[in-house]
Amino acid sequence: QPEVGKAMRNCYSLPGPDFTYGMYIHKRDGGVPEALGHWDIVKARPRKKKVMPRDFVTMGRGAVDEGCTTAREFALYYKYMDIRLKDKSILKYGFKIPPGMTFGRPARPSTPFFDIMQHRYKELWMEHQRAQTVVQHEEKKKKIGEVRENRTQFLRTHPLPKKEESFWHPQRFEKVWTPH
């Protein structure tokens, strides 16, 4: 029975103060002196030059420009003019980046604080709205003065093209019997 007001005792004995809980990872950590005195140097591996596949479309165009017409001439042209596809993964400028070039989106220009305090943007918006209402009012006045054309007036000004009547009829359609 546990004693009243006290926690129940654990049955296991704990290891000594030298024991490390968890997994021990061996690493070299000598602090600042080791960081300044011993540099970890990684040797660069020689870069393999990537061989791109042949660009047969460009070679074919070049062969036609040179006047090749037979399969043998095309084969000889392909043999001596080895044109390869360009690697798309390389930057547009190659490996050299222009000195003034920066990556990322350009920063927005800062909003003038003085214009915000004086409500300048509100005033510009109000002027724009007033100009729009004036233009709409003038367009409305023009529409009121106009008389809308109806179909008859439209057909008087734009007559339909006359159908040319054909006077020739096949004989078989001349005497058609119709039931009464």
Automatic annotation (TrEMBL):
Name of the protein: CFA77 protein
Highest taxon above the source species: Eukaryota
InterPro entries, A to Z: CFAP77
